[in-house]
Amino acid sequence: MKRFWIKLGLVVMAVGTLGGVVSPSVASAKTKAKPTFTNTDMKRYYKSDKSKTAFYFKTYKSGKKTGQMLIFGDFGATPNVKYGVPTSIKLSKNKRTLTTKYKLIKFTTTDGQTTTSLTKTVYTFKLTKKTSTTFTTKLKGSKASRRLATTGTTYTYTKVKKSPAPAYAKKYVKPTLYKQYLKAFADSGALTEEQQEEYATKYADQGVTTMVNNFNYRS
Fold first, then answer.
1. What is the tens place of the pLDDT at every residue in 102-121?
2. What does the DSSP 8-state code read for residue 31?
3. pTM
4. What does DSSP assign to residue 52?
5. Which residues form the signal peptide (predicted)?
6. Lowest-pLDDT choice from 3-7, 67-71, 142-146
7. CA distance linking residue 184 with residue 200, whole number of Å
């Protein structure tokens, strides 16, 4: 997975910036300025307790190229992490809304070998800054396949410095996986109740670790 970025379309830009067009806003003495995007916003995580999701833009290098990657974690009923490659990132004239077009990365496994490719479909979502720490955007899709979009349910996200994945995985993912594994082991009828609980805890913990590692992607 570390090398395939070279083959994908990268959005090349200065590290952690929007081409240098974003700068902190200064409120006038008479009028309180509405919050606008800053370079720092691109280096933060966005989390929503209500939707049990989080996302962030990751800057990475592939050879001599620098690009942006969009990572979306769904810690809800069907825990999963989606990876996207932005095809364009544009800031509105008032610098309050960031419009991102992206393609999702597909992973295909055949005969034990996994290959990656980009979806033909280009998705779009808009992130609007409401305050210095709160933003809104929309989620579309079923519980098993939610993604950032321009239509669907609107959620408020909070900007944070630290990855929310460990806390979200422990709070939301672990109990979900525990129940699923516990039911599967109970239905099998091959284990005692004590063994069912032991193995359900073990595999749920493994699932939490995987979810956190997938969200906190390291190139």
1. 999 988 888 888 888 899 99
2. S
3. 0.86
4. T
5. 1-29
6. 3-7
7. 9
